[in-house]
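Holo prediction — uridine-5'-diphosphate.
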Amino acid sequence: MVQQATVQKTTELYRGKAKTVYHTSDADKLILHFRNDTSAFDGERIEQLARKGMVNNKFNFFIMQALEQAGIPTQVEALLSDDEVLVKKLDMIPVECVVRNFAAGSLVKRLGVEEGQALTPPTFELFLKNDALHDPMINESHAVSFGWASSEQLQQMKALTLRVNEVLSAMFDDAGMLLVDFKLEFGVFQGNIVLGDEFSPDGCRLWDKATRKKLDKDRFRQGLGGVVEAYEEVAQRLGVILD
Ligand code: ADP
Ligand code: UDP
């Protein structure tokens, strides 16, 4: 872990549904504070789940370090505390990239297909990051014409997202889990596309390979209980040190 003791938290920049973002004494860096707040249905339902901020912060740091080692440029600079990470300040692109290896969630509702159907090759989708509009699905042409991202940026985001899928599908498979789907957000740092936000069980679907037990935020969305316990099980299976 790189020590960044000289960077101080200053003012609050943004309070999102799950994280609070702070400016720091370094204009190029931000601190992400992972809170225990857990939301579903575009923030219509919010609950506090003890330990979730800590688990997601450490989980996210572990995953981003693994992605960095695999050659994917990420925001991550240093783990600062149980629930805070120092990151590069990105100019965020308001487009969410979603890859699916198995049908679930909104895809099942939209196309009436069966949950769990394997998708070969994996699908790649874009959504506009806009809670008021319920994050509508968009295509590349919308993103370019409305100026949300350039064609070149979208091409890079797609290639990086598919590469993340290869790296993480293998990692979860080795730990006895299926990476069903996930969402990534990218931003621009000094002219380059960099992976931002977070990768945690809040933003992906993970099923036990043998039983297909849900180990992600669907436990919260569907009222299945044992939400943070499932996140901790995922972390423990991957070898993330939590305490
Ligand atoms: P939301 O905005 O969806 O409620 P969060 O509670 O996770 O989500 O808030 C985190 C916010 O910080 C998001 O809007 C995200 O786009 C933004 N963000 C994440 N990483 C970075 C970064 N490295 N630089 C700038 N903004 C970031
Ligand atoms: N996702 C997310 N944030 C969003 C929308 C989706 O992290 O605002 C994640 C979600 O957890 C899942 C994947 O992206 O792993 C695909 O989500 P889907 O389109 O199925 O939507 P959902 O039914 O989860 O809202």
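READOUT: The chain has a mean pLDDT of 97.
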